[in-house]
């Protein structure tokens, strides 16, 4: 079932292979999992607290980015086939995609030829203040990306005098006095709840964000959707709030369940969750009988022998 064999039968075939380390090179036969590639290809080294050990990202991000790169490559190959009439083999792997997503850090290392600065947690190596700070009941992140925004932050925190402090008047000196200003900010933020700070900074033009857990994220007003969806599609009376990233649908066996919706919005289409997640073996008869042409007796024997569910 390799590309060379199948492409002789159908030259228009687009064949995508996803592996740990690719079809060529010394690691091409090596097994690859997301966490191994995060370690080997630099991501784990730059993830974690400043003085802590290297850590993996909380989700299998290299798996996910590789899938996204591959889907984009397939789309490009489809466009190429429309022009040339020929398909092609797409060689995608976790290691290549992880190197690509090192992004500006890879560029800096290539241009400077110097060792990177390691892990920074939620902080930034060259911008201060730019990190999360403890609150009375959680954490909040501020992005003081320039001197004007630092002034906004100082005002909203109730310390406008910081703008005139020689240690903090420009970003370059704030970087030198990082520990001082970070400590002073956190002494203030600990005095109120995260929600109180969100309300204080609302409308300020300052980039800020609560550090939410998963439930907090899925119940966030920016991404939440209310209403139900039948097994055939979204009901007309669904009420959508903001971005609609959580959709409630009706499952024939489980009742109402909530699922994460597709993240892309189109101007002339409305992609959404079309059907509930299937139960085990739900489409066995449909696939074997309707698509592959198996008879009822053959399907019965396969189920009897435990070949299919």
From TrEMBL:
It holds the Pfam family CoA_transf_3. The keyword Ribosomal protein does not apply. InterPro entries: CoA-transferase_III_domain (IPR050483), CoA-Trfase_fam_III (IPR003673), CoA-Trfase_III_dom3_sf (IPR044855), CoA-Trfase_III_dom_1_sf (IPR023606). Gene3D superfamilies: Crotonobetainyl-coa:carnitine coa-transferase, domain 1 (3.40.50.10540), formyl-coa transferase, domain 3 (3.30.1540.10). The keyword Hydrolase does not apply. Keywords: Transferase. Belongs to the CoA-transferase III family. This is Uncharacterized protein.
């Amino acid at each position: 079932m390799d590309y060379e064999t199948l492409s002789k039968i159908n030259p228009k075939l687009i064949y995508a292979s996803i592996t740990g380390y690719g079809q060529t090179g010394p690691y091409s036969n090596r097994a690859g999992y997301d966490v191994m590639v995060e370690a080997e290809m630099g991501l784990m080294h730059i993830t974690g607290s400043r003085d802590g050990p290297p850590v993996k990202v909380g989700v299998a991000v290299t798996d996910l980015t590789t899938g996204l790169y591959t889907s984009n490559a397939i789309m490009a190959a489809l466009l190429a086939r429309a022009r040339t009439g020929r398909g092609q083999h797409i060689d995608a792997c976790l290691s290549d995609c992880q190197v690509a997503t090192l992004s500006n850090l890879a560029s800096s290392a290539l241009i400077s030829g110097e060792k990177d600065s390691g892990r920074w947690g939620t902080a930034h190596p060259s911008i201060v203040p730019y990190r999360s700070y403890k609150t009375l009941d959680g954490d909040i992140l501020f992005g003081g990306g320039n001197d004007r925004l630092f002034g906004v932050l100082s005002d909203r925190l109730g310390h406008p005098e910081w703008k005139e402090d020689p240690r903090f008047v420009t970003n370059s000196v704030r970087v030198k006095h990082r520990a001082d200003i970070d400590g002073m900010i956190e002494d203030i933020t600990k005095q109120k709840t995260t929600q109180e700070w969100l309300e204080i900074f609302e409308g300020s033009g300052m980039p800020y964000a609560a550090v939410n857990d998963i439930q907090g994220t899925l119940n966030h007003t920016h991404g939440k959707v209310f209403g139900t969806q039948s097994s055939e599609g979204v009901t007309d009376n669904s009420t959508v709030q903001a971005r609609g990233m959580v959709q409630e649908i009706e499952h024939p066996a489980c009742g109402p369940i909530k699922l994460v919706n597709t993240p892309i919005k189109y101007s002339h289409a409305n992609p959404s969750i079309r059907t509930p997640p299937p139960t085990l073996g739900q489409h066995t008869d449909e696939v074997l009988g309707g698509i592959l042409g198996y008879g009822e007796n053959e399907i019965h024997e396969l189920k009897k022998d435990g070949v299919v569910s």
